[in-house]
Amino acid sequence: MKPVGLILLAGALLLAACASEAPRIEHEHSYALEWIGERPLVDRSGMTMTLGADGRAYGNAGCNHWFASYTLQEQSITFGPVGRTRKLCVEALMEQEQRFIDTLPKIQRWDISPMGQLRLWPAEDKPLRFWP
What we know:
Mean pLDDT: 87
Radius of gyration: 18 Å
Number of domains: 1
CATH architecture: Beta Barrel
Strand content: 35-45%
Order of helices and strands: HEEEEEEEHEEE
CATH class: Mainly Beta
Distance between the termini: 39 Å
């Protein structure tokens, strides 16, 4: 087989292996929140989530830092009570932060969108959408 053919074959095998991998949540990786339900975030509010391998989730809620325990089993994910620091920010950021904090305990499952976003789905309503 010619070298070009070998390269094409290797590339095809690599793509097939990647395509067959089940989507998964990365531990110790920071995800950037883009949407809370049907509403995008306030510009540059920088909300994040990291899921620690130890079962603790944490991040920036736009104004305050947040933290909670979480349980992950296959496509199911649940969060325990959410704690946060107590800094005050402008009203729009505080309202957005509260919507996020209120949504986390309602999360029941997760998936990866066709665009590669991590989506955390509450029992009702639209998901939280994160970029890796």
